Amino acid sequence: MFRIFVTILMLAISTANSWAESGLKIAVYGDSTTEGWVSTDGGAFLTRKNVPALLQEMIRRDIDPNAVVYNKGVGGTQASQILLGVDGRNEAWDVEMSQSDASVVMINFSLNDAYFNQVPTPGMVSEGPKEFEYILRTLVKTAQVHGKTVVLLTPNPVCKEPRLSVLPYYVERIKNVATSEQVSLVDHFYATQKEKDWQNQLADCVHPSEAMYADKARREYSVLVPLLSSIN
Fold this sequence. Notes:
This is SGNH/GDSL hydrolase family protein. By secondary structure, the protein is α/β, with parallel strands linked by helices.
């Protein structure tokens, strides 16, 4: 573990020199677990300690003090909405990518894609795993056309239906796209399940606690540092 920490630190120092003048910008797209919603027994709140914010803190500390990590997450959304630009916040994906000044784009979908496929809802596209993979691949390829380095994220696991039994199929599709398109992957889904009592960090069985968000941020950072070093 210490060797891994030292390696990450050395890569961060090296990468910092590369980004010193240009300024690093990363955009993170996704659902409520990107935006930063936390559920409690008394309700829900939007935490400032969301993953993009925590990533920005770590990157500014170790790599680039002027780095910006944009939180482009929108709660309740699925991949088709970001593709079409109907998530209520972002432009259609091709336009979004053409206008974005981010060099790295991180994509975190599947929780709502799985949900709406199991619970048909008026106005929401039903994305089975196959359709989800096609949409995700389109997001990746479009971002790459616009010169973005893409990182795919699997979701945190859940502990109740209607997502529980189908979410693994969506996770496998994310991994398929990462492999075939040769982009970096952060696998929260299986890594989190190796942690003791991980279910206790999901008050509503879907949304992480601030502690789990911190774990996710550290996991993403460990993948980002060598990636940033390799592209600069």
